[in-house]
Write a structure and sequence with these properties.
CATH topology of the domain at 44-262: Immunoglobulin-like
Binding site for Zn(2+): 362, 366, 385
CATH architecture of the domain at 44-262: Sandwich
Largest sheet: 8 strands, mixed
Number of helices: 33
Bound molecules: ligand BES, zinc ion
Strand content: 15-25%
Membrane topology: Single-pass type II membrane protein
Shape: globular
Pfam families: ERAP1_C, Peptidase_M1, Peptidase_M1_N
Site (Transition state stabilizer): 447
Strand order of the largest sheet: 5-4-8-2-1-11-14-13
Subunit structure: Heterodimer with ERAP1.
Length: 952
């Protein structure tokens, strides 16, 4: 690849420099055949803004010049909202060339000069270079009058300036309101994946790692933060200050960060001596303490676990008032949305605490997975994101066992299964070249499936071996880039390979030669096995058929919404085959049996007679299981007789798989519903909540479609069936995390279903809260419920909106905004959307979740959808195509639709967008989801109706 690119460059450079004076230079340097080549290719080259030919036509940068070091100076002006900057990039020329291609977007470049090492040595001034710009590829070309020589170093100095960006990308402005009502501005960077180029011209690809020395000029009322500790501050004439930061370790451009703000902080020291600080707007300082405790614990955990020191002397975590995603792992300067970092004991719930802990755990894991070892290209972003998500599980389980994160992790795998069982899913390593495609790679498949597959592999290899493997991977590729295969090699005991490479880390040196074969086999096995999970999209279904002690296993591709009888089923199955590490347990013993299912079918013999078999023990495997014959009945009988014979996570997975199989037409809905009847005796809260989740889902589906008889009967069933446990709930914050989550879920359901005692208690608390002018502390577990009930009157709604504006707690604001979005009055919902579009009272960062929440409200679904259709252009001015908010707005306002008319309407809208040149992967996902919903209702509504009639 690199080679072919180099060849291409050679031809282009000829073409470019000869374009104006082609006759003169033809004969002097180049053969006529290369000129022919240029003349042939000429049309293929783009035209720069000034009309000249731009000498590079690929989206990826050439590799003949690579950056080694950036000296970056930035001076933002928070009054005029712009910045002036300059940089000196030291580059190494690998192949002689007459131009340098860099990324640059929306920057005004004033001056570019070049110095050779010799120029620098003799202090000769730089030679001015001509700059061409090709905005479609976000690239500039620096034209060198004389060739740059291979193996020599040069320095390129660039002076540039720009406005602080309006959105959430590059170097942008963010504002916050103080308690006194004053609005203040800060300047902050957010670069991943391709936005460093909006802040400074650079080689903006993850493979071009370099060192960065950063200087920031600021006013004395502000502070400046960057990746590294500050070395010194220089006072300038006129009172300005200039902070100089230490040179960074070798890193990719997307991890560079700097902030100019007036925030306050709390600090502590990790066991290794690293100084950890949490920064927030001054009035939010009191909400920073939990984050400090958590980040110190988690940093200690990771340094121990990976056996690799965090390489910087400090780590800053900053709560940014305007932030598009949840958080960003910039090396040494991690930035967060306020709700992902700040914890307010008065208004943050246990779920909020878990979220903050998870996000910190995730971003700190990136300091190793992502920052120290980076994927070669964005197509393998799952190596960053899947690992960081997997490490959340490992680290939070150890540092905060009381949060019982395990069951949430399981839920996360279930979430991505929904997506991955549609035909529109994609394999991990998708092709990604344009900025929009690259942004789309940050999706559930990379994050969640990545993490779930790693968890499965850990279960297969054993935790010990998996851990050794990832440590080997991190050590071997430190300050470098890696790809899938590098990971699989490290995860196998491939000492042979590492022995032969100097600096490899081999943990099995003492193993004898006779074991070598086993190592090799394991290595091949892991690679082959993982190829089936990473190169193929989708999730397998394991069909189990037991006859006596013989188990017949069969694998196929699990498809949600496509039935075996459908004509397309066969074609969608073709060529899919996984190496599935299956596990199972039986009624006869506690043993966990293991087997790798590598073929379409296989047969196993059970050691003893048994009344049931349960596959996928603890749900560690990424596959769905269907039991043919009497398999499901045998399990249901066990659940009814004594559910504790099955492990809690196995009960959860039975509920999950049963309802998934209903969507795939493999199990009837009444069978799955029958399975949930044992829930009345369920002792595990996560399992109980899983069953409840499906029943609630059916309630929402029928409510949206106005199927009032079924809705009424479901309501009746839910209230009758869960009454004993609802009535047991108190309105307080006591108990374990799951006790508290059960309380929130049940009371939310009860009030939603208008259960009188619930409404009464919530109304009472809401009135007391209003009377106390918002000072009364309502238990955080029920805060959202109380606000939602309060929001149903006009006075309550208006009061909540006032409090929304005043509140300094992001956790509380989210709860209020949700409550406001549950109003039954369309004009109130419209007002919220208008406020979200205006971006003052409701910040733009909260617009996507707001539209999503309104679309979930049966009275708001049409409103939100119409709004998106009519205001698409305005939305695209706020968020980039392919960005997380845009995808959330699309799926959040459409994927619940379940009628043919709605499907048609959505299809037409997507067609019109495609015609305008906007094409996103999410379109196909949404269309498939709606088709699946339609099919589900057609088939299952009558069954649900009948089942309810016999059940209540
Ligand atoms: N690296 C990402 C931030 C990011 C997201 C960059 C999308 C570019 C595009 C960061 O590590 C991340 O994954 N953040 C998550 C939070 C996490 C706990 C799942 C997010 O922003 O949602
Ligand atoms: Zn991440």
């Amino acid at each position: 690849m690199a080679n072919s690119r180099r060849k291409l460059i050679f031809n282009i450079s000829i073409g470019f420099y000869c374009s104006a004076v082609i006759q003169i230079c033809i004969c002097s340097q180049f053969t006529s055949s290369s000129i022919d080549q240029f003349n042939k290719d000429r049309g293929a080259f783009p035209v720069a803004i000034n009309g000249e030919i731009f000498p590079w036509h690929e989206l990826r940068l050439p590799t003949m010049v690579i950056p080694l070091h950036y000296d970056l100076f930035v001076h933002p002006n928070l009054t005029s909202l712009d910045f002036v900057a300059s940089e000196k990039i030291e580059v190494l020329v690998r192949d002689a060339t007459q131009f340098i291609i860099l990324h640059s977007k929306d920057l005004e470049i004033m001056n570019v000069t070049l110095q050779s090492e010799e120029d620098l040595r003799y202090r000769r001034p730089g030679r001015k270079l001509t700059v061409l710009s090709y905005p479609a590829h976000e690239q500039i070309a620096l034209l060198i009058p004389e060739k740059l020589m291979a193996d020599l170093r040069y320095s390129v100095t660039i002076d540039f300036q720009a406005k602080l960006a309006d959105g959430f990308e590059g170097f942008y402005k963010s504002t916050y309101r103080t308690l006194g009502g004053e609005t203040r501005t800060i300047a902050v960077t957010d670069f991943e994946p391709t936005q460093a180029r909006m802040a400074f011209p650079c080689f903006d690809e993850p493979l071009f790692k370099a060192n960065f020395s950063i200087k920031i000029r600021r006013e004395s009322r502000h502070i400046a933060l960057s990746n590294m500790p500050k070395v010194k501050t220089i006072e300038l004439e006129g009172g300005l200050l200039e902070d100089h930061f230490e040179t960074t370790v070798k890193m990719s451009t997307y991890l560079v960060a700097y902030i100019v703000c007036d925030f306050n902080s709390v600090s502590g020291t990790a066991s290794s001596g690293v100084k950890v600080s949490i920064h927030a707007a001054p009035d939010k300082w009191s909400q920073t303490h939990y984050a400090l405790e958590a980040s110190l614990k988690l940093l200690d955990f990771y340094e121990n676990y990976f056996d690799i020191h965090y390489p910087l002397a400090k780590l800053d975590l900053v709560a940014i008032p305007d932030f598009e995603s949840g958080a960003m792992e910039n090396w040494g300067l991690v930035t967060y949305r306020e709700t992902s970092l700040l914890f307010d004991p008065k208004t943050s719930s246990t779920s909020d605490k878990l979220w903050v802990t998870r996000v910190i755990a995730h971003e700190l894991a990136h300091q190793w997975f992502g920052n120290l070892v980076t994927m070669e290209w964005w197509n393998d972003i799952w190596l960053n994101e899947g690992f960081a998500t997997y490490m959340e599980l490992i680290s939070v389980n150890v540092t905060y066992p009381e949060l019982q994160f395990d069951d949430d992790f399981l839920d996360m795998c279930f979430e991505v299964i929904k997506r991955d069982s549609l035909n529109s899913s994609h394999p991990f390593s998708n092709q990604a070249e344009t900025s929009t495609h690259i942004k789309e790679m940050f999706d559930a498949v990379s994050y969640k499936k990545g993490a779930c597959i790693l968890n499965m592999l850990k279960d297969f290899l054993s935790e010990e071996k998996f851990k050794k493997g990832i440590i080997r991977y991190l050590k071997k590729f430190s300050y470098r880039n890696a790809k899938n295969d590098d990971l699989w090699s490290s995860l196998s005991d491939d000492c042979l390979e590492s022995d032969s490479t100097s600096g490899g880390f081999c943990y099995s040196d003492s193993k004898t030669a006779s074991n070598t074969l086993t190592f090799l086999r394991e290595n091949v096995e892991v690679k082959q096995m993982m190829a089936t999970w990473t190169l193929q999209k989708g999730i397998p279904l394991v069909v189990v058929n037991r006859e006596g002690r013989s188990l017949r296993l069969q694998q196929e591709r699990f498809l949600n919404g496509v039935f075996k009888e459908d004509p397309e089923w066969g074609a969608l199955q073709e060529r899919y085959l996984w190496h599935i590490p299956v596990t199972y347990s039986t009624s006869s013993s506690n043993a966990i049996h293991r087997h790798i299912l590598k073929s379409k079918t296989d047969t196993l013999d059970l050691p003893e007679k048994t009344s049931w078999v349960k596959f996928n023990v603890d749900s560690n495997g990424y596959y769905i299981v269907h039991y043919e014959g009497r398999g499901w009945d045998q399990l249901i009988t066990q659940l009814n007789q004594n559910h504790t014979f099955l492990r809690p996570k196995d009960r959860i997975s039975l509920i999950h798989d049963a309802f998934q199989l209903v969507s795939a037409g493999r199990l009837t809905l009444d069978k799955a519903l029958d399975l949930t009847r044992y829930l009345q005796h369920e002792t595990s809260i996560p399992a109980l909540l899983k069953g409840l989740e499906y029943l609630e889902l059916f309630y929402h589906i029928t409510e949206r479609r106005n199927v009032s008889d079924v809705t009424e009967n479901l309501k009746h069933y839910l209230l009758q069936y869960f009454k004993p446990v609802i009535d047991m709930q108190s309105w307080c914050d006591e108990g374990s995390v799951w006790d508290r989550r059960l309380r929130s879920a049940l009371l939310k359901l009860a009030c939603y279903l208008n259960h009188a005692p619930c409404i009464q208690k919530a109304t009472e608390l809401f009135s007391q809260w209003m009377e106390s002018s918002g000072k009364l502390n309502i238990p955080t577990d029920v805060l959202k419920i109380v606000y939602s009930v309060g929001a149903q009157t006009t006075a309550g709604w208006n009061y909540l909106l006032e409090q929304y504006e005043l509140s300094l707690s992001g956790a509380e604001k989210n709860k209020i905004l949700y409550a406001l979005s549950t109003s039954k009055h369309q004009e109130k919902l419209m007002k919220l959307i208008e406020l979200g579009m205006e971006g003052k009272v409701i910040k733009t960062q909260d617009l996507a979740p707001l539209l999503h929440a309104i679309a979930r409200n049966p009275k708001g679904q049409q409103l939100a959808w119409n709004f998106v259709k009519e205001n698409w252009i305005h939305l695209l001015k706020k968020f980039e195509l392919g960005s997380f908010p845009i995808r959330m707005i699309i799926s959040g306002t459409t994927s619940h639709f379940s009628s043919k008319d709605e499907l048609q309407e959505v299809k037409l809208f997507f067609e019109s967008l495609k015609a305008q040149g906007s094409h996103l992967e999410i379109f196909q996902i949404v269309l498939e989801t709606i088709s699946k919903n339609i099919k589900w209702l057609e088939k299952n509504l009558p069954i649900l109706r009948n089942w309810l009639l016999i059940s209540i």
